Amino acid sequence: MEGSVQGVGFRSACCRRATELGLYGWVRNLSDGRVEVQAEGTSIELNELRLWCERGPSTAKVRLVRLSHLPITGDDWFEIRP
To answer: One of 11, 16, 28, 55 is an active-site residue; which one?
Structure first.
C-alpha cells in the first residue's frame, strides 16, 4: 500500500482483519514508507482483504494498492513482521 500507511496502526488493523477472514500470511512496513501484505486464502476472502486495504484503518490515507500473485507458502497463521 502507498499513502499515509505507516504510524497509523495499519499493520495491527490489517492483521486483525486478515485473521477475522481466516487468511494466512503477514504484513510489514517497508523502509520507503509503504506497507506490504502477503495473504493466502480463498479468492472471496482475499478480495475482502483487498477492499479493506484500499480503505485501511480510519487513521490511514491509502493512495494505491498494487496486487501481485505469489507462490503459496502454506503458512497457517497471520503475523505482523518487522
So the answer is: 11
Tell me whether residue 47 is one of the annotated catalytic residues.
no
Percent of the chain with pLDDT over 90: 90
Per-residue cell: 47:
478480495
Tell me, yes or no, if 63 is annotated catalytic: no
- The pTM of this model reads 0.93
Residue among 16, 28, 29, 34 flagged as catalytic: 29
User: Beta-carbon neighbour count of residue 27 at 10 Å?
Assistant: 24
Collect all residues with Cβ–Cβ distance below 8 Å to 43 and sequence separation of at least 6.
Answer: none
Give CA–CA dist 5/61, Å, rounded: 6
Write out pLDDT tens, residues 64-82.
Answer: 999 998 888 998 999 999 8
